[in-house]
């Protein structure tokens, strides 16, 4: 890690990590704390996270990224804490709502965008004055699906594409400020998010009109079953993600984007190098067949 800031410097810096109660966020919190950062772990219910084994340099604070008052209170708490100055934010909080777009309730799309895009924007805007004072860093966690949109993950891809655009625009606006904006794109990783993924998908399918169920049930059910299996078989682990977060915060000359996992790298290459119609044909196998559309009943 010759391009990273020595750990002695990370001991004088604080980092806020959102979505830190479980999964990738929790792994990132532990990894950063072990390497000297003071970490403010933003969670909805801190009382469920604190344990006797919690490191002294990890502070769990209430943070609901969809609530402006919660964001403001969290930043006030960070400022009032006897800790090193806030130097970085890792915008990790997010949800994934799977659904055919035609079947997706508008309220679920709003929830997807509110959590993964607007909430991260609101957190970043609130902490920017603190980061600017330290010439710190914004680390936005998107996905391989921020490069390539897949069938049945349209809402999630919309959010990730938007977060990619938010990151690029902000980095360019802050070019002369000393604050850098870095994107991390994880691929499939086995975390607890997949349990919520399955329940959300099945609930949407159950509530859909019968005509849409006739079109999408076969292919969407197969997609829901295959996605967690692919994550479980993935060679990429949460520790790989946590290490990449550390790199994004400590590399002297950080990249604008870090892919985590071969599948994320492949998505980026495919999005840039393959003709769009070719990609369409490749993903057509996931979607309904022609006879399923022709059998539509209203």
Which terms would index this structure?
298 residues, alpha/beta, seven-stranded parallel sheet, 12% strand, globular
Please render the helix and strand layout as text.
Blueprint lengths: L6 H4 L3 E4 L5 H12 L3 E6 L14 E5 L5 H13 L5 E6 L14 H29 L2 E5 L12 H20 L6 E7 L6 H15 L2 H24 L4 H13 L6 E4 L1 H12 L2 H8 L6 H5 L4
Parallel strand pairs: 1-2, 1-4, 2-3, 4-5, 5-6, 6-7
Helix pairs in contact: 2-8, 3-4, 4-5, 6-7
Protein model, in words:
With 298 residues, the chain is an alpha/beta fold. Helix content is 52%, strand content 12%. The chain has eleven helices and seven strands. The protein has helices at 7-10, 23-34, 68-80, 106-134, 154-173, 193-207, 210-233, 238-250, 262-273, 276-283, 290-294, and strands at 14-17, 38-43, 58-62, 86-91, 137-141, 180-186, 257-260. Strands 3-2-1-4-5-6-7 form a seven-stranded parallel β-sheet, with helices on both faces. α5 (154-173) links the parallel β5 (137-141) and β6. α4 runs parallel beside α5 (154-173) and α6 runs antiparallel to α7 (210-233). The model has no long low-confidence stretch (mean pLDDT 91).
């Amino acid at each position: 890690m010759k391009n990273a800031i020595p750990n002695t410097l990370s001991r004088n810096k604080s980092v806020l990590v959102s979505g830190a109660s479980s999964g990738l966020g929790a792994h990132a919190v532990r990894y950063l704390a072990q390497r000297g950062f003071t970490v403010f772990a933003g969670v909805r219910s801190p009382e469920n996270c604190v344990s006797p084994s919690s490191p002294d340099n990890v502070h769990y604070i209430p943070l609901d990224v969809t609530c402006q008052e919660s964001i403001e209170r969290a930043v006030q708490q960070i400022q009032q804490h006897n800790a090193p100055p806030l130097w970085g934010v890792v915008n990790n909080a997010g949800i994934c709502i799977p659904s055919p777009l035609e079947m997706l309730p508008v309220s679920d799309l709003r929830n997807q965008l509110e959590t993964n895009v607007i909430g991260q924007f609101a957190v970043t805007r609130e902490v920017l004055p603190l980061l600017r004072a330290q010439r710190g860093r914004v680390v936005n966690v998107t996905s391989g699906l921020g490069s390539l949109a897949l069938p049945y993950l349209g809402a999630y891809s919309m959010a990730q594409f938007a977060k990619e655009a938010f990151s690029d625009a902000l980095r360019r606006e802050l070019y002369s400020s000393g604050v850098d904006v870095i994107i991390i794109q994880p691929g499939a990783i086995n975390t607890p998010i997949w349990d919520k993924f399955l329940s959300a998908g099945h609930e949407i399918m159950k509530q859909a009109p019968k005509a849409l169920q006739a079109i999408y049930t076969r292919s969407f059910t197969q997609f829901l079953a295959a996605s967690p299996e692919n994550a479980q078989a993935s060679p990429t682990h949460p520790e790989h993600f946590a290490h990449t977060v550390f790199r994004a915060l400590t590399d002297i000359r950080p990249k604008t984007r870090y892919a985590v996992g071969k599948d994320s790298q492949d998505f980026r290459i495919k999005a840039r190098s393959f003709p769009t119609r070719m990609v369409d044909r490749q993903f057509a196998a996931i979607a309904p067949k022609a006879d399923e559309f022709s059998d539509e009943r209203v």
